[in-house]
Specification:
The chain has about 600 residues and is of the alpha+beta class. It has four domains: about 70 residues, Elongation Factor Tu (Ef-tu), domain 3 (Beta Barrel), CATH 2.40.30.20; about 70 residues, OB fold (Dihydrolipoamide Acetyltransferase, E2P) (Beta Barrel); about 240 residues, P-loop containing nucleotide triphosphate hydrolases (Rossmann fold, 3-Layer(aba) Sandwich), CATH 3.40.50; about 140 residues, Bovine Mitochondrial F1-atpase, Atp Synthase Beta Chain, Chain D, domain 3 (Bovine Mitochondrial F1-ATPase, ATP Synthase Beta Chain, Chain D, domain3, Orthogonal Bundle). It is built from 16 helices and 26 strands. The strands form five sheets. Strands 8, 18, 19, 20, 21, 22, 23, 24, 25 and 26 form a ten-stranded mixed beta sheet that branches. A hairpin with a 6-residue loop joins strand 23 and strand 24. Helix 13 packs parallel to helix 16. The longest helix has 26 residues. The protein is globular, with a radius of gyration of 28 Å. The N and C termini lie far apart (about 95 Å). The mean pLDDT is about 95. Bound molecules: adenosine-5'-triphosphate and magnesium ion. The site of magnesium ion has 5 residues, from helix 3.
Amino acid sequence: MNSAKRTDGTIVKVSGPLVVAQGLAGTKMYEMVRVGKMGLFGEVIEIRGNRFSIQVYEETEGIGPGEPVAPTGAPLTVELGPGLIGSIFDGVQRPLDRLRTKYGDFVVRGAAAPPLDREKRWHFVPRKKVGDRVSAGDIIGVIPETHIVEHRVMIPPGWGGSIKSISERDLTIEETVAVIAGEEGGEKELTLLQRWPVRSPRPVRRRLSPVAPLVTGQRVLDMLFPIAKGGTACVPGPFGSGKTVVQHQLAKWADAELIVYVGCGERGNEMTEVLIEFPELIDPRSGRPLIERTILVANTSNMPVAAREASVFTGITMAEYYRDMGYSVALMADSTSRWAEAMREMSGRLEEMPGEEGYPAYLSSRMASFYERAGRVICEAAEEREGSLSVIGAVSPPGGDLSEPVVQATLRVVKVFWSLDDKLAGQRHFPAINWLSSYSLYQELVDRYANEKINPHWAKNRQEAMAILKRESELEELVRLVGMDALSVQDRLLLEAAKMIREDFLHQNAYDAVDTYTSLLKQFKLLQVILAFYHWAYQAITVGVEINDLLSLPARGEISRAKNIPEEKVRAIDELRERIRSSIEALKLTGEAMGQKV
Ligand SMILES: Nc1ncnc2c1ncn2[C@@H]1O[C@H](COP(=O)(O)OP(=O)(O)OP(=O)(O)O)[C@@H](O)[C@H]1O
Ligand SMILES: [Mg+2]
């Protein structure tokens, strides 16, 4: 790939996933090498004189000093082209599904299977014709990659010229799809198979600020702490607090056109769940299996530590490729802490100067280089085409300690913080997102969007709900000190309203067929009916109605079941609101009647 002359090297030391070699003249930082007689995959991560430190993406057991190391001349690169969707790759993009057919259940070390299928034929339909001038990013034709996603074949970055040949036909990814005559003479043959080095962001024409929410169907997220399309979020939480369930819910329901799910250093069974569920789950928008819009990357806890970093960069590069086609893409990484731990381990073995808690000093900048690839963009192309990439990372701080370095490094780059809480999880309040400590910097833009598209009272209602929840925590403090009796009847009603917001709105069961997803309209109506009850009850109290009579109204019980009303019957929530209004009116009337009798 590169003209510099390279020579083979020899292993001098093996220390877990780190191999030190010498020789390797001409090899540069971040180049891939094949290590030992087995030809394990590795990446050069430090060069000191004649000593090359290599992080090896496979188990290094059984290899030792004296064995050869062969340079490849290329950095860690992914293959891009049709066939990515629906696949499951390991951290260095080996196709786990196809390797299994070839080698059985365990990936054989040094096994080389190309990420994309070489035999499969795709039906290409041109969008350009012979003689058309094209530049980098232009779409020259399309392929139905799945029923949901149309693969848009783009001129690669750095290319351009006029089309010499192109036609509608079936072809494999290695056959020439078009011949491009360059501006300065010469011809290039374009294939469906393209490559990109994972550590370099793919170019875009322009970056834009986000304007629309990434709708997740999760009420606490969309209503209180929304993420934008092209935004970044993190989900930190202690062991078992629901990080993976949140990530799975996003992968299932987020209104992105393409999902990249990276399982990084977590238990294998969590990936298995995704693998079993996704082909069966039907995307409500397209009516097709969710797997038809999903790419899975699995570097689970039993897989080599060094490949964790590769897995997040492999994932985000594939995500950028579909963003460049003009799609809204969302990437979930579970868990970025396992990647950070891998960095710490490698840094320790390299005997680098440790930073906070043993993490390398470059922890923050490395994590930023991942999250900063999110965004809403105008793609590189002659035509104006918009794409977005949203990134959501789980963080697993030991003991749930939010002051630890990985959480802190993440918070410096992401704009949404979904703080999972041990106490809430303990009470089985799921998603266990703490409404007092979480935040979203996209709130205003989502308010504007939802005020216009859903209901002009969206922002006002959200603010009121938040105010009620905040007041609840103050009142709870008061109750702890002086007891319930000290509260005014209005405050008691507020505590009831807060409880309804928590239990009947924020609490959401991921495993219930209806409750698992709520549209923005239904979210609005659910919150609206709770607030309406609160307002009308408040008025009723001021004219003398007993709070207990209000709280025991049958219509109030219906509010707690409203979240199970199916989307297509969402108007039933309006009818419920009407019933609440009239039953409170009736209480007021009997109150007045009683008042007259006295
Ligand atoms: N939205 C939800 N609805 C219902 N149950 C939930 C929800 N979120 C979490 N849970 C429950 O909490 C359990 C633990 O969640 P999860 O595995 O996501 O935690 P985690 O934070 O990823 O844990 P770990 O630290 O082990 O990775 C789930 O198995 C499930 O029983
Ligand atoms: Mg988990």
